[in-house]
């Protein structure tokens, strides 16, 4: 028998991807609910062969579902996350609101599956999209040689900023060839034919909140002793985040060993040929589940250093897929209970 599931934020990019992936992996669903804001009541979304009409977040009775997947933004999670968890279902939240809460596990199933064994608030947090793919790549290497320090530069697609970001890239790209690109609204500068070294708000130390998230989330998920510095950049790509990663280890790990370790790791595909096209770009990652690793090589500037290129579909592993994999993990561990309704 399946579970009663609700997707909050059903009309957004990630919400729609959650429906797609739940169907693709054949997650056991008995009854599915699409939940959205009042302005989206009645909007139709698809789940497999079903057409669902969106129900009102403020009127929905969450006590009648077993699992809630949330991707409606931090303000909605702040207002509703704990209320929903208190009503009984397990909440898997895609926003940043609960990630650093000590009573909320922050989970990437390939990295720290044991974290779901304690869920005090009935809430599990999904990490930042860039963190998710990074820690999948770092985990098997850390197990082998212990990571001291990571330097990462990201190349993040506009879908990470939602439909508005994708629309802005599309409209500006078309405009360049006609009357000129329309002025930016979602981003701080023109994104078409440009890159923007600014994601999320600036903090007092000069880093952006996106860069801070990568550091503290990696420490919470993988190891608090890892030092990480990031530069996060928005690029004119529709879907798929890329990362240039330099890692310093406590003990030696040569590139051939690292390549084999990564080939054997869960959730990773290595495409690493030292020839034209022998690597993955975000275009090839679109619609795919794995984290792809390419360009594995020694970093000669530090002792015990390696560099590599890391690519993944940010709407999937960076968001919707990771949430569904957490749900699968709960199911496999027998931690997701089906309520008996009166």
From TrEMBL:
<dbReference type="GO" id="GO:0019877">
    <property type="term" value="P:diaminopimelate biosynthetic process"/>
</dbReference>
<feature type="active site" description="Proton acceptor">
    <location>
        <position position="241"/>
    </location>
</feature>
<dbReference type="GO" id="GO:0009088">
    <property type="term" value="P:threonine biosynthetic process"/>
</dbReference>
<dbReference type="InterPro" id="IPR036291">
    <property type="entry name" value="NAD(P)-bd_dom_sf"/>
</dbReference>
<dbReference type="Pfam" id="PF01118">
    <property type="entry name" value="Semialdhyde_dh"/>
</dbReference>
<dbReference type="Pfam" id="PF02774">
    <property type="entry name" value="Semialdhyde_dhC"/>
</dbReference>
<feature type="binding site">
    <location>
        <position position="156"/>
    </location>
    <ligand>
        <name>substrate</name>
    </ligand>
</feature>
<feature type="binding site">
    <location>
        <begin position="11"/>
        <end position="14"/>
    </location>
    <ligand>
        <name>NADP(+)</name>
    </ligand>
</feature>
<dbReference type="InterPro" id="IPR012280">
    <property type="entry name" value="Semialdhyde_DH_dimer_dom"/>
</dbReference>
<feature type="binding site">
    <location>
        <begin position="159"/>
        <end position="160"/>
    </location>
    <ligand>
        <name>NADP(+)</name>
    </ligand>
</feature>
<comment type="pathway">
    <text>Amino-acid biosynthesis; L-lysine biosynthesis via DAP pathway; (S)-tetrahydrodipicolinate from L-aspartate: step 2/4.</text>
</comment>
<feature type="domain" description="Semialdehyde dehydrogenase NAD-binding">
    <location>
        <begin position="4"/>
        <end position="119"/>
    </location>
</feature>
<keyword id="KW-0220">Diaminopimelate biosynthesis</keyword>
<dbReference type="InterPro" id="IPR000534">
    <property type="entry name" value="Semialdehyde_DH_NAD-bd"/>
</dbReference>
<dbReference type="GO" id="GO:0009089">
    <property type="term" value="P:lysine biosynthetic process via diaminopimelate"/>
</dbReference>
<feature type="binding site">
    <location>
        <begin position="39"/>
        <end position="40"/>
    </location>
    <ligand>
        <name>NADP(+)</name>
    </ligand>
</feature>
<dbReference type="GO" id="GO:0009097">
    <property type="term" value="P:isoleucine biosynthetic process"/>
</dbReference>
<feature type="active site" description="Acyl-thioester intermediate">
    <location>
        <position position="129"/>
    </location>
</feature>
<feature type="binding site">
    <location>
        <position position="99"/>
    </location>
    <ligand>
        <name>phosphate</name>
    </ligand>
</feature>
<dbReference type="GO" id="GO:0046983">
    <property type="term" value="F:protein dimerization activity"/>
</dbReference>
<feature type="binding site">
    <location>
        <position position="314"/>
    </location>
    <ligand>
        <name>NADP(+)</name>
    </ligand>
</feature>
<dbReference type="GO" id="GO:0071266">
    <property type="term" value="P:'de novo' L-methionine biosynthetic process"/>
</dbReference>
<comment type="subunit">
    <text>Homodimer.</text>
</comment>
<comment type="function">
    <text>Catalyzes the NADPH-dependent formation of L-aspartate-semialdehyde (L-ASA) by the reductive dephosphorylation of L-aspartyl-4-phosphate.</text>
</comment>
<keyword id="KW-0560">Oxidoreductase</keyword>
<keyword id="KW-0457">Lysine biosynthesis</keyword>
<dbReference type="InterPro" id="IPR005986">
    <property type="entry name" value="Asp_semialdehyde_DH_beta"/>
</dbReference>
<feature type="binding site">
    <location>
        <position position="234"/>
    </location>
    <ligand>
        <name>substrate</name>
    </ligand>
</feature>
<protein>
    <recommendedName>
        <fullName>Aspartate-semialdehyde dehydrogenase</fullName>
        <ecNumber>1.2.1.11</ecNumber>
    </recommendedName>
</protein>
<keyword id="KW-0486">Methionine biosynthesis</keyword>
<dbReference type="GO" id="GO:0051287">
    <property type="term" value="F:NAD binding"/>
</dbReference>
<comment type="pathway">
    <text>Amino-acid biosynthesis; L-threonine biosynthesis; L-threonine from L-aspartate: step 2/5.</text>
</comment>
<keyword id="KW-0791">Threonine biosynthesis</keyword>
<comment type="similarity">
    <text>Belongs to the aspartate-semialdehyde dehydrogenase family.</text>
</comment>
<keyword id="KW-0521">NADP</keyword>
<dbReference type="InterPro" id="IPR012080">
    <property type="entry name" value="Asp_semialdehyde_DH"/>
</dbReference>
<keyword id="KW-0028">Amino-acid biosynthesis</keyword>
<dbReference type="GO" id="GO:0004073">
    <property type="term" value="F:aspartate-semialdehyde dehydrogenase activity"/>
</dbReference>
<dbReference type="GO" id="GO:0050661">
    <property type="term" value="F:NADP binding"/>
</dbReference>
